[in-house]
Amino acid sequence: MSETRLKYDGGTLVLEGKAPAPMPPWFTWDERIEKYRAPAMDRRRICDYLAECREAIEDASSQARPLKLKLRTEYAPRPYQREALAAWQEAGGRGTVILPTGAGKTFVALGAIAHTGRSTLVVAPTIDLMSQWYSLLVDSFGIEIGILGGGHHELRDITVTTYDSAYIQAADYGNRFDLIVFDEVHHLPSPKYQQIAIMSNAWHRLGLTATYDRQDGAHEMLDYLIGPPVYKRGVKEMTGEYLSHYDVVRMRASLTDDEAERYAASSKTYYGFVRRTGIKPFGSGWVELLKMSAYDESARRALIAKMEMKRIVVGSERKLEVLDSLLKQHFADKVIIFTEHNDLVYRISREFLIPAITHQTRTKERKWILDGYKNDTFHAIVTSKVLNEGIDVPSAKVAIILSGSASPREHLQRLGRILRKGTTRRTAVLYEVVTSATTETNVSSRRRKSDAYA
Amino acid sequence: MLTLDLLRYRVQGDAVIPIYLDPRGKYLAVADQIADAFRSCVGGTVAELDEILDGMSGSAPDYKVYRGLAKMMHDYAITEPPSDLDSQELRKAVFEAAARARPIVRRPDMLFQRTASEVLDSIASQRGITPAKLELSLYADLKESQIVRKLDESVTGVQLIDRYNTALAQAMLYRATRMIVDVGDSYRTVFKYIKLARLMHSIRPYGSGYRIDIDGPLSLFSNVERYGIAMAKLLPAVLKCGDWRLAAKVNVADEQKLFRLSARTGLKSHYRDEPVFDSAPEEAFFSKFARNTKSKWRIEREGSILDLKETVLIPDFVFTHKDGRVVHLEIVGFWTPEYLAKKLDKLSRVRDAAVVVAAPESLNCSVEQFAGTVIRYKSRLLTKDVLPALDAAAPPERRARTRRRKSSE
Predict the structure, then answer these.
(1) What is the ipTM of this complex?
(2) If contacts are CB pairs under 8 Å, which of residues 168-207 in chain B contact chain A?
C-alpha cells in the first residue's frame, strides 16, 4: 500500500497521507479540511503525472467495476463507424466523435462500451433520448440497465441518465463509472452541465454530436472536459441516403358553432390588446406578452384569451372526426400522431385506445410502447412534443400532425423522424390537420416555407 | 418549497430582497380563500382543484402570489390515485386488445364498427370490474387525476403566509454560491443539516458566538450554484438558532447580489423543535449543577463548537471556570458499536481543547482508548464525580492552553 492515497469526495479528489513531490499542479490546498483537493476530472492527469515522476500513489477514488460484455446485436458496422471507434481508441479512450444525425453515432458508443469493459454512464439531453438509449443498451448487451431520471432511480453497471439528473447527482455517482458517454455533447459546456464532467473521475470519456461548434465558443472547453475531437464526417457526404420520398397532405377541419363563438370572443380580447399596445401577435411579441402579464391585468387577460383560442383550435371536435377518418383509412399502416397538447394526447388515447407518450410517461412504459410499435403489436401511437431530437420510429409510414408550433427546426425533426430510412423503402405520408379560418392556417403556411417542402 | 419561477424579489443596489407578504395585509384574504378552495376540493381531482385555483387568480397580474400560496398549500394536502388497480398494466391490456380489434372508431360505419366502449366493456367483464371503474383506472397515475384525500384542516391563512415567506427566502437561496451564518446559540440543528446535505463549513469565533462559512467541495475551484438547494434546506434550521444573521451571495440575472436575513426578518421555521436535552438524566444533572451557586464552574448546555474540519463536535456541556479555564463534557450513552467507534474517533481528534468523557459503567466498550479524562458512573452522573475530572482535564496552571479555541492559536 502506498503512503499517498487519492480519495473521492463529492465531485472532487482529496489527497491523503504523504504529500508527493512535486505536487501535481491540479491540486489546491483546502483550508477547510487542511488537505489537498482537485476536481475529479483531473484524476487521469494526476495519475499520469505522478507515474512520470515515479511517485507511487494508491488510487482509491473509483468504484467502477470491470464488466464482461458481449454485443448481442448482429449488425455490421459501417466503415465510418469502425473508423470512428478506432480513432477514439487511438486517442486513449477520450474525445468526441462528430457524425451527422442519423449516421448511427450510437453504434460507435456501443463499440466503445464493449471495448472499454468498465462501468459506464450514458448521459442524454432528454428523457426520450435516455429512454431510447435504455432500450438500445438492454437489447445490445442483454443485461439489466440502470436509469437515473424520469421517475426512475436505479443504479447499475451500465446506467443511462439525462443531463439534468446527472447534474443533480454528480456528487453522488461521479466515481461509479470509468466510461462516461455524452450524447449530443454540444450541450455539455453550459455552466451547469459542465459540472457533470468536472465532478466525474471517469478515466474514459466519449462525446457524440452532429454539431460540435457552439456560437459562444464554449466547445473549446470540451477539449479539456472530455478530450479533443477524434473523428469527423460532414453532413454533405451523407445526406440523400437517408431521406425517402414523401407526400404532404393538408386537411382542414372547421369549428363547430359553439367553438366558433367562444373563439370569436377570445379573439376579440386578444387582438384588441394587440392593436392597443402594438406588440407583435407572434414571435418576439409572445415573449413580451408573457413578461407584461406579470404586472398588467389586460396583458394577462390577453394571454388567457390567446391560450383559450389555442385550446379551441387544437382540440376541436371536427379535428377528431378527421382523425377518425384517417385512422380508418390507414388501419393497416403504422401511424404516429403528434399534438403538442398533453390534454389532447390523453383524450385521443382514451377515445381511440392508442398508447400515449408524454413527459409523464416513464422509461419502462415507453419501452413497451415503442417495442410494441416496432414489433407490430401496436399500429398507432399518440405523443406530445417529446419525441424530438432523433428518436427512431423507423416503421412509421403515416404521420398525423394535429397541431404544431411554428418552429421550422422542430418541424423538420418531426418530418425527418418518420421519413428516416427504415428496412424497406416506402413512401411516407404526412397529414397536417389544421382548423380552417383560424390563425392556425397562418402558422401552417409559414411552416410550409421551410426547405423540407421545397 | 417554491419553484424558481414563482420567486418574487426586488433589487436594491447590491442587495436583493424577496417580496414577502404581510401576514395581516391584503393577501391574508387570498390565503384564506386558497385554503378554502383546497377544503372544498377534498374528494375531487387535482385537475378540478387547479381549475378553481386558476379561476381565482384570473387575470390578476400578481398570479405568482396565488400560485405560490397554492403550492405551499399543497404541502398540507394528501393526494392519492383514484383507483387501487395497476394503471400501467391495465393500459397495456386495453391497448393490446384495441390493437387486435383495430381500428377503434368514434363513428361506426359499414366497414368498421368497433368502438372504444366495446373494448373497455369486454376487458372490464374479464376482470370482474365495471367499465366505469376501468375507465377511471386507465390513467389513474397521471398527476392531474390524483384525488385530494385529506387536508390539514387547522391550517390558517396566517400560517400559510408564514410558510410562503420562508419558502420565498429559500427560493432566493437556490442560486446561492456561498452562505455565511452568524449564530449565537442553539446551533446544533444547523450542523445536523450541514452534514445531511453534505455541505462544508469553516468556523471561527465571532462576537459571543460563531461565524460559519458554508459551501461545498467544488466551491474551492469555482463559484457554483449547485449547493444552493442544500443551503435552502438548511434555512429552516438556521431559523431555529438564537440570535442569528445570514448573508448569501446569490446570482440574479447574471449578476452577483447579496441576500441578507436575520432573526429580525421574522421568518418562521416549520422544522420540529429538537428536545433541549437528549435524556432526562442529562437534564437532571444540568439543573442540579446549575443550582449549585457555590461552584466556581459555570455550566452551559451545548455552548461551544469544536471544529474538527471535516465535521464538528458540539459537546453536551461546557464548563467555564471563574479563572477562565474551559472544559467540555461529552456523555457517551447507549448506542450501536459503530456509533460508539465514530464518537470515540471524533473525541480523539480534538486538539487544543479540554474534553472529559462520561460513560456509564455498564457501557461495554473500551472508552479507555480515549486518551483524555474519563468518568465511569454507575446509574447517575453526579456533580461530585465531575468536579475533580474538570480540574484533572484543565489544571489551573494550564489555563492558558485551555481557553476557548481561538486563544490557543
Answers:
(1) 0.71
(2) 198, 200-202
